[in-house]
Automatic annotation (TrEMBL):
Pfam family, one: TetR_C_24
Name of the protein in its database record: TetR/AcrR family transcriptional regulator
InterPro entries in the record: Homeodomain-like_sf, HTH-type_TetR-like_transc_reg, HTH_TetR, KstR2_TetR_C, Tet_transcr_reg_TetR-rel_C_sf
DNA-binding region: 33-52
Keywords, sorted A to Z: DNA-binding, Transcription, Transcription regulation
The HTH tetR-type domain, residue ranges: 10-70
């Protein structure tokens, strides 16, 4: 019984957070009332206040949810890819992009509103974001040690990948004219790995380095 109640509470919380992310991401947190969020989520405003004291609590919870989902999806993808650092990095980057795609509104909201969270909230988000990078940093370092990657700064390389993943949400209005998610991930992976893999090993990864020439998509130009 307790497990069922917890599952329902988690479902309601996610429902509220998704609704809040949609509205706040589109209109800004200050312009959105708790009642509007309740209406969007299809719940009572009292239910929202049961879990969240104010809109800043909502913004923090939305951002933490994204980072928690990344913290689950990326290491799982890296582990499934096995020992090959190239495949592991490509799989981790794909998982990061897919998770950001699932939370596009939340990602936009995070960039727009995280400065309103105060020092403690911002410190918490920074700590969690650094933790999400570790599997990708590890894959880059393994690739360097194995002679697959050029000797780059692993953390800087990882931040580049993270920013590319976030760019799918932040500039989705632009990218969606020419790319769907699959094409975006495939082509960005090819660009990154093309500069990262040492020349003598590039022939080992044709599927990753030579995607289909036409970056196609959902809407056309």
């Amino acid at each position: 019984m307790r497990t069922a109640r917890a599952a329902r509470a988690d479902l309601r919380t996610r429902q509220v957070l998704r609704a809040a992310a949609r509205l706040m991401g589109r209109e800004g947190a200050d312009a959105v009332s708790m009642q509007a969020i309740a209406d969007e989520a299809g719940v009572s405003v009292g239910l929202i206040y049961k879990y969240f004291g104010n809109k800043q609590d909502l913004v923090l919870a939305i951002t933490v949810q994204v980072l928690d989902d990344v913290a689950m999806s990326v290491p799982a993808a890296v582990d499934r890819a096995g020992d090959d650092a190239v495949l592991a990095l490509a799989a981790g980057f794909r998982a990061y992009c897919e998770t950001i795609d699932e939370h596009r509104h939340a990602a936009v909201l995070t960039y727009r509103e995280s400065k309103t969270l105060g020092a403690d909230g911002q410190s918490e988000l920074k700590r969690r974001e650094v933790a999400t990078m570790k599997p990708l940093v590890g894959a880059v370092r393994r690739g360097i040690d194995a002679g697959l990657f050029t000797a780059v700064d692993a953390e800087l390389m990882t931040y580049d990948l993270v920013m590319l993943a976030h760019a799918w949400a932040l500039k989705h209005w632009y990218f969606e004219r020419s790319f769907d998610l699959e094409a975006y991930v495939t082509h960005q992976t090819a660009i990154v790995l093309g500069g990262l893999i040492v020349p003598e090993r590039r022939a080992d990864y044709p599927a990753l380095l030579r995607p289909s020439a036409a970056p196609h998509t959902t809407g056309g130009r």
